[in-house]
Amino acid sequence: MKKIISVSYKDDTPAFFAEEFFDNLKKGNVDVENKFGKFTISLKPEDVYCFVFWTKNCSDYFIEHLKDVSSPYYIQWTIDGYGKDLEPMVPDKHEILERFKKVSEIVGRSRMFWRYDPILISEKYTVEYHSRAFSEMCRILNGYTDRCVISFLDEYDKIRDDVDKGIMRKPTVEEIKTMCEAFSTVAKENEITIQTCSERKYDLSEYGIQEAPCVDGNYIEKEFGIKIPESIKHPKEHFRDCLCSKNTDIGRFHRCKHDCRFCYAK
Question: Rg of the chain's alpha carbons, rounded to an integer?
Fold first, then answer.
């Protein structure tokens, strides 16, 4: 069955496992394993509607080999405002912003989804801090993306100790509204639309911010001129308020090397 393939929010394949991915792409398939067993997933163009790449800083190898991807694809690229205290292995953000712009020049701004997430609050990373960081990044990325995805910290069991110690926490509703008001103003100035990821409990429409899928069958249809079945575009069940179209992720948990302190997949 033809699929949307996610590559991969589990392990940042473009940053750390690009060579592995392109080897599998050349072979035409990849073996994946989950709680239901082991499966072979076809990567052949006739079996792929679209690849959705997820990264914080894709490698040179990945960029060099994008020309080998014959199926439609777009990129979900996270650039937030955190430092080495929370993202010890993520390179300097200004370096990453320049890399984002380089890839955008290759693939086009409409295929570059900038993610500013998850948004957390701490003594250092205040509402004012996020407003400044987001504003600076918006101006740098003006013309290189037309969409930004935001979400707010989920207090997973894996980060419970840090939450209990006050190292990080989820923003309050009032903090979310204050940030979103500031975000929406600067985003509009820089021709960037903001959408939320798995945050259906918040109504941010007054700031021009809508809930939307990250893996988006409607976007794929419009961007690439291909038809996606309704059963894939709008699956009947959504996990944790996720609106994403049905997709198959081919990464593996516990392999990402960024070592982000707030990560659900570490």
Answer: 18
- Give me 134's structure tokens: 């987001």
Q: What is the pTM of this model?
A: 0.96
Sign, Cα dihedral of 9, 12, 14, 18:
negative
Cα 158 from chain centre: 20
DSSP conformation class of 169: B
193-221: b (≥16 Cβ within 10 Å) or e: bbbbbbbeeeebeebebebbbbbbbebbe
Residue 42 φ then ψ, to 5°? -75, 140
86-101 pLDDT, tens per residue?
999 999 999 999 999 9
DSSP one-letter code for 12:
T
Helical (H) or strand (E) element with 117: strand 112-119
Cα three-residue angle 181-187-188, rounded to 5 degrees: 95
